[in-house]
């Protein structure tokens, strides 16, 4: 075999390996949410999508080790994730095939289709709860490998006879009925816009500045914002948008939504000068006429010790002048960072 032929064969093999590897890495679903896999099949609005439940993989085995849904599985009619609303309209082919750890399934009325073998070999299934007022027509093989005669079917009140007459649902056992489903929760209204009353600040000799945010729409379900500063050594901001100046420089103050709409708006604060700190007068501590005398410029905790280091008194004192009688002796008095030794006669 010539060298050129060997190189050609190796090249073909390498391309084939890369193709197989890339195919293996591709996902057979759009995203996973709370242990269930979904495929997007349509878009109804800018942030509203139609999805169906699918298995992790299109071909057997349909799930990797440890990825199978188990226990009680409730399929949501719709949900919000990553700033988008997803409406669940379908349970796809083989969606839960082989998930023998599932014990209970709840299916909302919004599901309009269930695909082939959707619950095939779900041998641990004990209860199925459905909310269609009229039984949904499903393929005969939806529950292949499941002894549905031992699985209880819970249906809306007063609809038992209709389900018993159905060729698939009628094979389940019926022990009572489910109460009507609770009314749907009010729809989540996402924030669509956030604006600040100032997009840039130039601060001179200002200690604080209040930024005000306007959140729209007014009836947004969760209008709360988080406030952050790009440099807390220059300026900090609290949960209300109050900016506190720390030093000269520039910092970007950002307000961000917390409802999943992923909207944020920023204001650049230029700090040109800082308000000087006021000098705080140190407390006066001395003794006269058989008593300790204190003059405090701010409220403080005063600790009095004897020369042996034993605590004599602890005083919580407000601003002002104070007199504390003490037995004759030598004492050490501490308040804040100030320590004084006094002699009481």
Which tags fit this structure?
mainly beta; 2 helices; Leucine-rich repeat, LRR (right-handed beta-alpha superhelix); six-stranded mixed beta sheet; Immunoglobulin-like; 345 residues
Within the CATH hierarchy, at the fold level, what is the topology of the largest domain? Leucine-rich repeat, LRR (right-handed beta-alpha superhelix)
Report the uncertain regions: 10-25
Cα distance spanning the termini = 114 Å
Which descriptor suits the 3D outline? elongated
Compressed to H and E, one letter per element, the order equals HEEEEEEEEEEHEEEEEEEEEEEEEEEE
What's the CATH first level of the largest domain?
Answer: Alpha Beta
* CATH architectural type of the largest domain: Alpha-Beta Horseshoe
Strand content: 35-45%
Note the total helix count.
2
Rg calc? 36 Å
Tell me what the structure shows.
This protein is mainly beta and 345 residues long. The chain has 3 domains: 141 residues, Leucine-rich repeat, LRR (right-handed beta-alpha superhelix), CATH 3.80.10; 82 residues, Sandwich (Immunoglobulin-like), CATH 2.60.40.1080; 61 residues, Sandwich (Immunoglobulin-like). The chain is built from 2 helices and 26 strands. The strands form 7 sheets. Strands 1, 2, 3, 5, 6 and 8 form a 6-stranded mixed sheet that branches. A hairpin with a 6-residue loop joins strand 18 and strand 19. The protein is elongated and about 105 Å long.
